Amino acid sequence: MSLSLIVKRLFWPGPDFGTRDRYNLRKLLLKGQEIESLDVGFGNGCMTYFAASKGKSALGVSILEREVLKANSLRSLFNLNDEKCQFKHVHFNKLQESGSGPFDQIIMFEVLEHIVDDNSAIENAYKLLKPRGQLHITVPNRDSHGHFESLNRFENGGHVRHGYDFESLQKLLEAHGFEILDRRGVGFNGSILGFKAIAFLRRAPGPIGQLLSLLGFIVLWPFVQILNLLSCRPWSIYILACRK
Questions:
Q1: What is the CATH number of the domain that holds 136?
Q2: Which of 21, 93, 129, 144 is least surrounded, with the fewest CB atoms within 10 Å of its CB?
Q3: Residue 28 in contact with residue 136, Cβ under 8 Å?
């Protein structure tokens, strides 16, 4: 194993504080030898790898081909083969047409705010789940994000809306037949400040940016934890729902 892979494994799931906050939700995932999972917009693949290692199989889908190529190349880091864990370059709304599913659980972390037709996305999630299958979803907390941020009119990777609050997201899910099982806040002020600092350090070219982000993570980690304890309003919200 190369030095870069050893470092990546040591700091997994990486120096991104937002990703780390969401990775803590892995304890809420279904686990078991028969569990088949779908991870939509998988990011660095941390939840996909975890679901695959704790279940029968996991599929990650993304509209970004570079994410798919990178995620597939890291499977061996977790002793996973393509039967247990796959990443595909496909839009979530086209997935049912390809014959994929049904799944025991679907993970949609920080995805819905990028999709113009969120009703269709939730409807598709419902159709892709088995009866009593579970949907794990996080979105930006509309009450925490500055509404000065620019929005995109089309799906090109940016946000098309200023997130949701608990009530609006719950209403959207229930309108499509989901039952709400749990809800909680994810990521507080410390994590957001840490996220922005790491993003700034990553702007340095190549390996320098990677090294700076890791060093920044080590230095910032204790301060991030303290600030999170002093915060009361989450940056993102999480809802666990199941198909009735």
A1: 3.40.50.150
A2: 93
A3: yes
Phi and psi torsions of 181, nearest 5°: -105, -30
Domain that holds residue 106: 21-188+234-243
SS3 (DSSP) at 85: strand
pTM of the model: 0.94
Please state, in angstroms and rounded to a whole number, the distance separating the CA atoms of residues 87 and 70. Answer: 9
Domain-located, residue 81: yes
What share of the chain in percent tops pLDDT 90?
80
Contact 86, 62 (CB under 8 A): no
* Residue 160 lies inside a defined structural domain of this protein: yes
pLDDT in tens, 29-56: 999 999 999 999 999 999 999 999 999 9
Number of structural domains found in the chain = 1
83-100 confidence digits (pLDDT tens): 999 999 998 888 888 888
Q: Report, in angstroms and rounded to the nearest whole number, the Rg of the chain calculated over CA atoms.
A: 18
